[in-house]
UniProtKB/TrEMBL annotation:
It comes from Verticillium longisporum (Verticillium dahliae var. longisporum). Residues 8-21 have a biased composition (Polar residues). Residues 1-25, 400-421 are annotated as: Disordered. This is TPR domain-containing protein. SMART domains: TPR (SM00028).
Length: 552
């Protein structure tokens, strides 16, 4: 993948104005700046090449729906381009954030059928393709070996990883081959490349092997990167350190490792590489947060959210990328909390809430409420973090739902902005508000009200289905911590129970080293741990004084 020059296809990767001035149809004008990125494929059509490049970049940026649309546009311009069909098959399947198990039955059947058809079309149009294109096309069929899904599609991922291993052995310096191969292997153990408690590689995950491959790819010289892919003579090559797919995967591989800081050079290379790909603008913040660069994390997600909003204006909210946009807002809130920026955090909450209409949450397939609704619970957490107790108590109440949470059919007559009236649809948000209100009552010196509200919270939490998630976490698991926080607040009249809770949270109780994940252990960090213990002691002493004074 390299910047394109005048000696290559002239249209790919340029601004809409440049494309129009060069004679491309206005229908092919594109409002997004995806950088100067290209992989020349076998096609006589400049338009097909341009749309292929866009599809590939969006694939690496995990906007798979937009990638699929771009590959379909490439096919529309050249129905004989095998790599356009390959790209479509590649991008619509499972990925690091969405394994086969996350597809509901209807979506799974649709994706498998479309992926199988696209893979067959790619094979049917091999013609005069290059050897590496032929190998990639052969490999992708192993991802969809039949037009209907099996009860367990995970063996297809294994077959695809093995097929890509063979392609990589044949073309070891092709940056896109490396990217697709590492992606295929990481998809066998998504978010499980390292053991969280020990920091050791997960057995059988090929973690260190993939790191070695990525390290080598990121260090490939310009000359090696140029020779690995057929490029027109005179094209200035670009090495692996400027490849968005490699950089993206490298961050994911290292973020749960013992040394996430080793990925910072890759993160810095990615920060502005693809200006309108919001998820790629966001990705460096995964390492910023882990290394204490909270201002950098906030800046990265501010840029990402702006790019996401440009895409929202183009495509609307009724798509899976809304999950990624919500994640970027969420990460912006998280960074703002760590850097004590309440205004920034609340503004991100406002923008997130405005981007998640009720019509989107009511889509049954894929079940968007299960995937998105928990993001709407961020505002109470922000208000708790900054001690804005009266603002918490002013949050609207939701009536008890008549039945267990589910997915109602879209109602055209419902006011789509009135989330507040539907505690069933917004079950995580409702429970989180009640947790925050219980905490607020306790903080304001009204434990009887706090206990009553806590009972409402526990009842609301019990109505949250296990299918509700916030990325890799189930909502019931996430709501277990607020339950403990309410318990902490209500235990303030008895210092011993509170101290036990705080000691466990700090990892300084008898079981701390066993219970705390490796990422939360800081051996030798005596000064910070001492300050944490001192802060806990001061907080307990003040709580005791407050409780004695309030007498409630």
């Amino acid at each position: 993948m390299r910047p394109r020059t005048d000696q290559q296809t002239e249209t790919a990767g340029r601004s809409p104005q440049t494309i129009s001035s060069m004679g491309m149809d206005k229908a092919d004008e594109y409002p997004f700046d995806l950088g100067t990125y290209t992989r020349p494929v076998t096609t006589p059509s400049a338009e097909c090449q341009a749309w292929f490049d866009r599809g590939l970049v969006w694939s690496y940026a995990f906007n798979h729906e937009e990638a699929a649309e771009c590959f379909r546009r490439a096919i529309a311009h050249d129905g004989t381009c095998a790599m356009a069909y390959w790209g479509l098959a590649y991008c619509i399947g499972p990925n690091y954030n969405k394994p086969w198990a996350f597809f509901d039955a209807d979506e799974l059947a649709r994706v498998v059928r479309q992926g199988h058809d696209a893979a067959l079309q790619a094979q049917a149009h091999l013609g005069a393709v290059t050897p590496v294109e032929r190998a990639l096309v052969a490999a992708v069929l192993s991802r969809y070996p039949q037009p209907t899904p099996d009860a367990d599609c995970e063996p297809w991922n294994v077959a695809f990883a093995h097929a890509m291993q063979a392609v990589h052995a044949q073309f070891p310096e092709d940056l896109d081959v490396i990217t697709v191969y590492v992606d295929a292997v990481m998809n066998l153990h998504p978010w499980d490349m390292w053991q969280l408690k020990t920091g050791e590689p997960t057995p059988g995950a090929q973690t260190l092997e993939m790191k070695t491959i990525l390290d080598g790819a990121l260090g490939l010289s310009d000359t090696a990167a140029a020779s690995a892919t057929s490029v027109a003579v005179g094209a200035p090559p670009r090495g692996g350190a400027q490849h968005p797919g490699l950089l993206h995967l490298y961050i994911h591989l290292l973020e749960m490792s013992p040394h996430p800081e080793h990925g910072l050079p890759a993160a810095d290379n990615l920060r502005t590489l693809v200006p309108d790909a919001g998820h790629l603008l966001h990705m460096p913040s995964h390492l910023d947060i882990l290394t204490g660069a909270y201002a950098a994390a906030a800046e990265a997600n501010t840029r990402a959210a702006a790019a996401d909003e440009r895409y929202l204006a183009h495509a609307g909210p009724l798509n899976f990328y809304t999950l990624y946009r919500s994640h970027d807002y969420h990460f912006l809130v998280y960074a703002a909390l760590f850097s004590a920026q309440s205004a920034l955090a609340l503004d991100a909450c406002r923008r997130l809430e405005a981007s998640l209409p009720a019509a989107l949450l009511r889509i049954p397939s894929p079940p968007m409420a299960d995937r998105l609704e928990a993001f709407l619970a961020l505002r109470p957490h922000v208000l708790v973090r900054f001690g804005r107790w009266h603002d918490i108590l002013a949050l609207p109440a939701m009536p008890d739902p008549p039945s267990a949470p589910g997915h109602a059919n879209p109602d055209e007559n419902k006011n789509e902005t009135e989330h507040e009236e539907d505690a069933s649809l917004l079950c995580v948000t409702n429970a989180t508000r009640l947790y925050a209100k219980a905490l607020a009552h306790a903080a304001l010196g009204h434990p009887s009200r706090a206990r009553a509200t806590q009972r409402l919270f526990l009842a609301a939490r019990a109505r949250v289905p296990a299918s509700r998630t916030l990325f890799n976490n189930t909502a019931p698991d996430l709501l277990a911590r607020p339950a403990a926080c309410d318990d902490d607040a209500l235990a303030r009249l008895a210092a011993a129970p509170a101290l036990a809770v705080y000691a466990a949270d700090l990892g300084i109780d008898d079981h701390g080293a066993e219970r705390l994940p490796r990422a939360l252990q800081h051996p030798g960090n005596v000064s910070d741990e001492a300050r944490a213990v001192e802060g806990t002691l001061k907080a307990l002493l003040r709580v005791a004084d407050d409780c004695a004074a309030c007498g409630d």
